[in-house]
Amino acid sequence: MNSLTIARAIHILSIVVWIGGVCFVTAIILPAIKLQFSFAQQESIFQLVENRFAKLAKWMVVIAGISGFYMVYLLDAWDRFFSLQFFWMHAMVLVWLIFMLALFVVEPLLAKSHGAHNSNPEQSLKLTLRLHIVLLTFSLLTVFVSVLGAHGAFY
Ligand code: HEM
Fold first, then answer.
1. Cβ(26)–Cβ(131) under 8 Å?
2. Is 40 exposed, middle or buried (0-12, 13-18, 19+ CB in 10 A)?
3. Rg for the chain, CA atoms, rounded
4. CB-side neighbour CA atoms (13 Å) of 149
């Protein structure tokens, strides 16, 4: 077993926990909260779940990035980023960048301003759910095309 195989296994493990978690929050937790609780309660329950998941997701996103770039280095595949054929490599890095920004920049900023009262919790939960659906769809599509791409489907 070589370092590339180990890096690949670690990469996929982190992706499973991270994107699997996003899927669980989006498909199960958010709709359940919407159905069961009052608007006032919805926001605080969502914050509780999302904050706990964010801690785990941060580690997974960092591990996915390290293992991903380590594979690019081992494969000496930097030139893939200049070729359209490897659009799935661009998609992986884009998903990674979006989550890095969301978890390490946007969320802490929102948490800081969260002390201020949210005047429209219903609207903000709706927007949160929509954003999660878009991000989850893009992430799952990326997983799909990355497996195809890594196994030679596009050349
Ligand atoms: C910094 C971000 C990332 C980098 C640099 C990166 C890099 C890589 C590399 C080099 C490979 C191996 C390609 C090959 O064998 O030819 C790979 C495989 C893969 N990556 Fe990423 N990746 C990143 C993020 C992601 C994300 C966010 C996802 C999921 C949304 C993802 C999902 C996958 C999948 C499913 C494979 C295919 C594994 C296989 O079937 O062998 N990666 N990645």
1. no
2. exposed
3. 18
4. 17
* pLDDT surpassing 80 at residue 121: no
The CA 27 to ligand 1 mean position distance, Å, reads 24
Is residue 150 in contact with ligand 1, taking CB distance under 6 Å? yes
Which amino acid is present at 81? F
pTM, two decimal places: 0.95
What would the pLDDT profile of 91-120 be if each residue is shown by its tens digit?
Answer: 999 999 999 999 999 998 987 776 556 667
Q: Is residue 155 part of a domain?
A: no
16 Cβ below 6 A of ligand 1: no
The predicted pLDDT at position 115 comes to: 56
> How many domains does the chain fold into?
1
Q: Domain of 29?
A: 3-111+118-150
> Which residues, in sequence order, are CB contacts of 31 under 8 Å at separation 6+?
129
| Ligand 1 contacts CB of residue 60 (under 6 A) | no
